[in-house]
Amino acid sequence: MTLISKPGTDWTTLYQRCREAAPEAFGADRVLNYWGGRWRADGEPRPAFSPVDGSPIAGPPMVGAETAAAAVAAAAADHRRWRRVPLAERRQRVAAALDAWQEHRDLLALALVWEIGKPWRLACQDVDRAISGVRWYLDEIDGMLGDRAPLDGPVSNIASWNYPMSVLAHAMCVQALAGNAAIAKTPTDGGLVCLTLAVALATREGLPFTLVSGGGRDLSPVLVRGAEIGCVSFVGGRDAGGQVATALADLGRRHVLEQEGLNCWGVWEFGDWDTFAGQVRRTFDYGKQRCTAYPRFVVQRDLFDEFLAAYLPAVSSVRFGHPLAVSAPEDELPELDFGPLINAAKAKELRDQVAHAVAHGAIPLYRGALADGHLLPGQNTDAYLAPVTLLEPPRSSPLFHAEPFGPVDSIVLVDSEDELIAAMNASNGALVGSVSCDDEDTARRIAARVRAFKVGVNAPRSRGDRAELFGGWGDSWRGAFVGGHLLVHAVTVGGPGERPPGNFPDYTLRPSPIAV
């Protein structure tokens, strides 16, 4: 059956709807930056293309260091005013912003489809989690704040493109609720229109937000080391995170640096393969382009045949393709596990890494085909990659020690518990991990030795919402842990000598209780 693009979901219609919803933020041919209390046509728009089909979309208006410095100075002035606003009024304004997000929920979600390739279900989920998550903080903020005070300066947010709403916009709202102004650098690889619309709706309600686009090299000195900054919140890879950490090293400044790690799923003395098969397919949500994805399975050699019997049918059932392709105009949008990767360059990088790994000894256990994808006839597929599974990637391959951030699984076989644990700790720290084992005592013994902040037993772990804490061990995290009350505590000041739970150069302090 020939597929068509669902009428009314095209990019031109989406952008026009955004202009109608927030004409102050969207020009006819460019998106604006927001700082100093108004929208500005500064910066040079950079060409951008949708990963969905390679077509042109709105690109980020890139500003330089001088403009960014002016924006930070204006945000610092916003912060001095906002920190004196009573909590009751802050709560009222944040609630009004959430109501506006809810009103435009489908428009925000459709922007995520086009800009970062999320299937409709997952795009809606990202927006919904942002709204419901901040609403929870509205109810809980009194007890979290107590007599704590806002920071001395605004929070600078530098985040990756994969969760513009449920991570970045959510954090900005909580930061404002706690009494801080919030600055965000638009993720360069995607999310510009979604985040711009969200900020436009929020600033109408008086929230002290700043939104600028620019390259990390140009803006980092201002957004990280600027004297007015009260806290730096970073979400991204280890290379960029390490550069931010180095820039912060001599400042003694509050920071939250969430970095990648190779999240591993260990299988040891296990037999509930029906449950496991269902879990495998869910690990492919959004093509594993998230910080809590599981790209590595560490499997007891004696169980490998049973593992494969469960794993291969699960991975072959994964559905991917064009998020807006339907059979008929009246059809609902397709139920997909993932769409394209963030861009064509990332897809090529992973194809090259797979080819290198196989050439140097990895065994290809599964290779999906683009022809099996849910795609429009003749559409551009440069950013698409079908699932791939490799057995025993060589140590020379990036797939051995780093997170691929795409639908590429690797499997490592082991013969002892010590080997299992060593293999699961290959990246010196991770955000999550899981252990599938029939004996709960054995599973918890193994879990206690895995260097991941959260380790699931016979179930995956996620970042979590609301009260659930989040962080990472080793190289996967630097600075204060977040989630629940810790997200508020990370951007407020308590009593003298306070030591926030986190992973710092001079100490590591586990939160109590820690989620395991």
UniProtKB/TrEMBL annotation:
Q: Using the record's annotation, list all stretches that form the Aldehyde dehydrogenase domain.
A: 44-487
Q: Record keywords: Oxidoreductase included?
A: yes
Q: Which SUPFAM superfamilies match?
A: ALDH-like
Could you list this entry's UniProt keywords, alphabetically sorted: Oxidoreductase
Report TM segments: none
Name assigned to this protein: Aldehyde dehydrogenase family protein
Per the UniProt record, the source organism is: Marinactinospora rubrisoli
